[in-house]
Amino acid sequence: MVWNQARRAARMNPSIIREILKVTEKPGILSMAGGLPSADTFPVDALKAACDRVLSQAPREALQYAASEGFAPLREWVAARVATLGMQVKPDQVLITSGSQQGLDLVGKILCDAGAPVAVETPTYLGALQAFTPFEPLFTSLASDAEGPLPEAIAALPHDAPGTRFSYLLPNYQNPTGRVMGAKRRAEVVEASRRAGVPIVEDNPYGDLWFDEPPPAALSSLWPEGSLYLGSFSKVLTPGFRLGYLIAPPELYPKLLQAKQAADLHTPGFNQRVVHEVIRNGFLDDHIPSIRALYKANRDAMAEALQAYLPPGCEWQSPQGGMFFWIRLPAGLDAMALLPQAVEAGIAYVPGAAFYAHQPDARTLRLSFVTLTPDLIKEGVEKLGRLLHEALSLATEHAP
Amino acid sequence: MVWNQARRAARMNPSIIREILKVTEKPGILSMAGGLPSADTFPVDALKAACDRVLSQAPREALQYAASEGFAPLREWVAARVATLGMQVKPDQVLITSGSQQGLDLVGKILCDAGAPVAVETPTYLGALQAFTPFEPLFTSLASDAEGPLPEAIAALPHDAPGTRFSYLLPNYQNPTGRVMGAKRRAEVVEASRRAGVPIVEDNPYGDLWFDEPPPAALSSLWPEGSLYLGSFSKVLTPGFRLGYLIAPPELYPKLLQAKQAADLHTPGFNQRVVHEVIRNGFLDDHIPSIRALYKANRDAMAEALQAYLPPGCEWQSPQGGMFFWIRLPAGLDAMALLPQAVEAGIAYVPGAAFYAHQPDARTLRLSFVTLTPDLIKEGVEKLGRLLHEALSLATEHAP
After folding, report:
1. Closest Cα partner for A327 from A304, A351, A343, A297?
2. Pick among B44, B65, B112 to test the A interface (most A CBs inside 10 A)
3. Is A239 in contact with B197 (Cβ distance < 8 A)?
4. Chain A residues with CB inside 8 Å of B24's CB?
5. CB spacing of A102 vs B65 below 8 angstroms
6. pLDDT score for B159
7. Among A6, A18, A241, whose Cβ lies nearest the Cβ of B270?
8. Is A298 in contact with A377 (CB distance < 8 Å)?
9. Which among A169, A388, B270, B345 is least surrounded, fewest beta carbons within 10 Å?
10. Range with the lowest mean pLDDT among A53-57, A229-233, B333-337?
11. pLDDT per residue as tens digits for the range A168-215
């Protein structure tokens, strides 16, 4: 035993997401597990042309070390873009990150202390739990309904020292549940947060992926000084470039910037310039609607298949955007316990238990509807339905 | 005051490196400050062709989410490459990172605890101090000479609980001093580390940049189970792609991988594939010697200029590789205090004080010889010499 590991290392456990991504690499598996955008939406030609232009026009700058804040024109683009969500932001509040996962890591580093409470939705994004956990916060699970966290749960957050550091909220087509927070709920949540003195970390990777109408204004637009906002290019362009951004109140920006520099000096300048080159002239105005149309058709295909094949007693709501259905199985079934049989049958999903900070609901599971084509969605859900019917009849046989 | 920041945020201070990079962006400054590789060495055409090939041949894979460990063929390439440094490594010990700065952040996360000692050279790489500091280690400065840390300083490291977590060592053309550790010293340092039970984190960004003869075998080759190795593509290809790697003993790899996933899910798959496409068929065998030749000529130009223009009493050694001269000024001069006048005079350097964990030597400064051309190096050093001559005569006038 040469190495003496840090106390926080003991809290870090093998990731279910990562293990599942491995399963889905097996050929022949119909995976509805990973949160992978459809590769059909990647703008390959536009990216190829942009790589070429950047390396022709500014190779010395694109390939050199660069500023930790990010590429200035991209920061300006982001500041202008979030104005469409009601946010009034200056470019110097924008920090370009290596995916919004890195934004979560930086937030953890700057705001979490061992034993200080951090509030999360029930359930919440697994990657956020993983990002915050090394900094040893005390998670508080906010009681939540079909619109997200309840304002009264926020009002009841611990405010004695050390105080609740922040609430981590995903108002738009949340991962994993797909739920969206309505305008009235947003106002109530912000008001409760303001009264309780608990700031908001708002994560919005899916906001552009609405199907029939855009979501209400960002929480950050309602309480700018008390909100920190995370955005991403992963779901509207490509995750393989690892580009996201943080928008921080001026009070927090300098520390986040220092944490960013210590973490990786800066996000690849080449990637920032290529993405800026693609999007600078309104590319997304045409591109995002094409993603919405594709995902909406997939959502419809999965909704129809679930209706057709899942046994009675299963519960779900049809998501109004994003990438996921959230299914609750009938009593007696355990999604984690069934996963090996599912993989055996040639399908994969994510057991919902992974998304809870406390008291996991073993009957839940997450299905992505954007990775497979409608035909394969139908085939996958049919297999899932067969598996659940069998499991249910077994459970009934063994019931007392 | 809505936001309550983490205890560790108070330890993070504005970075001198970043502030200086800003100064060097001013037009007309002859900067010998930044550790920027020469942009003349960036293989623009090879990268352009590789971007095109990757986006033609594997766009869906290159633009999708990918495994946290890194792109398998690149990990295999790294494992084969470090065999030339005497290291016997399996590909599954290789973790691709977003620059080797991220490797330092992951090491800090996994190995540092508040108050647990971490040993560093005197002086050491500023970016490592920044990466480890948020995790609140107790830095121990190892007494060092022209070859690096003294074996007896390692033997004397605290080994009572919590024990020294690791020594952070840069044996090849160290940043900031440019010094290299000889073969005998390496053996002694490893032997002392083994006896003291203090593992080694070996950082080797500059090892390929030798001028007359390659450096001795890596420390990690002498004590594989007690060493963690960091490598980088920043100095031999391009820093703008942010690609580095960690090589870890099997005991540590799983935790580093979990920390990596929490930090940014994975390093951009596109960047990994492009770099692999460039280097897979021996590209570096021709490319690196051309960097060496360029940097050696620059080293010679700076050595000559220093000899010609610096006042008596300045001390330096001509580096045998890497990117930096380390200068010690005559008594009475303070490199930090002189920096504003230097910038006024149109030049920039890094005051050496930034590179010490304790008791900074205010008379030291670091000069990069790879960013400017030989003509501009001469011009910059001449200006530096004039400034130092003036400062010296002022110091003498005011001497008691």
Report:
1. A351
2. B65
3. no
4. none
5. no
6. 74
7. A241
8. yes
9. B345
10. B333-337
11. 999 999 999 999 999 999 999 999 999 999 999 999 999 999 999 999
Sheet holding A324-328, edge to edge: A324-328, A364-368, A350-351
Q: Which residue has the higher pLDDT, B106 or A15?
A: B106
Confidence of residue B277 (pLDDT cuts 50, 70, 90): very high
**CA separation for the pair B90, B100 (Å, rounded):** 19
Q: Which residues of A touch B239 (CB under 8 A)?
A: 63-65
pLDDT-based confidence at B21, cuts 50/70/90?
low
> Which among B9, B67, B199 has CB closest to A3?
B199
Contact B5 A255 (CB under 8 A): yes
Q: Give the H or E element holding residue A397.
A: helix A374-398
Residues A301 and A1: their CA atoms lie apart, in Å, by 54
Are the beta carbons of A62 and B12 separated by less than 8 Å? Answer: no
Segment A266-295, tens digit of pLDDT:
999 999 999 999 999 999 999 999 999 999
- Select from A97, A261, A350 the residue whose CB has the most chain B CBs within 10 Å, as the one to mutate to test that interface: A261
Do B7 and A113 count as a contact with CB atoms less than 8 A apart? yes
Give percent helix, percent strand, percent coil of chain B, each to the nearest 5: 50, 15, 40
pLDDT digits (tens, 9 = 90+) for A297-338: 999 999 999 999 999 999 999 999 999 999 999 999 999 999
CA B88-A8-B225 angle, to 5 degrees, is: 15
**Residues ≥6 apart with Cβ < 8 Å to A25:** none
CB pair distance less than 8 Å for A65 and B21: yes
Domains of chain A: 7-36+285-398 (3.90.1150.10), 64-281 (3.40.640.10)
Other Cβ atoms less than 10 A from the Cβ of B394: the count is 12
pLDDT band at A19 (very low <50, low <70, confident <90, very high): low
Token pair, residue A81, equals 């873009």
Report how far residue B317's alpha carbon sits from residue A209's, in angstroms, rounded to the nearest whole number: 60
- In this prediction the ipTM stands at 0.95
| Inter-chain touch B55–A48, beta carbons under 8 Å | yes
Give the mutation candidate from B195, B258, B272, B273 for the A interface (greatest A CB count, under 10 A): B258
Within 8 A of A115 by CB-CB distance, chain B residues are: none
Tokens of A308: 């057709």
CB atoms within 10 A of CB A212: 8
Contacts of B266 in chain A (CB under 8 A): 242
Q: Distances in Å between the alpha carbon of A337 and those of A174, A333, A363, B202?
A: 24, 8, 10, 43
Band of residue A227 on the pLDDT scale cut at 50, 70, 90: very high
Going B187 to B192 to B197 to B202, the CA torsion angle's sign is negative
Side-chain half-sphere CA neighbours of A389 within 13 A: 11
Contact list in A for residue B267 (CB cut-off 8 A) is 242
Q: Report pLDDT for A129.
A: 95
| Span B360-375, average pLDDT | 96
More confident residue, B364 or B28: B364
Check A261 against B130: CB less than 8 A apart.
yes
Tell me what pLDDT residue A10 has: 83
Helices (H), chain B: 16-24, 44-57, 59-62, 72-81, 99-111, 126-132, 151-155, 183-196, 219-222, 253-264, 269-279, 283-309, 335-344, 374-398
Q: At A254, list the tokens.
A: 């300098």
Residue A351: CB atoms within 10 Å: 23
A255: part of which helix (H) or strand (E)?
helix A253-264
Q: How many CB pairs under 8 A join A and B?
A: 263
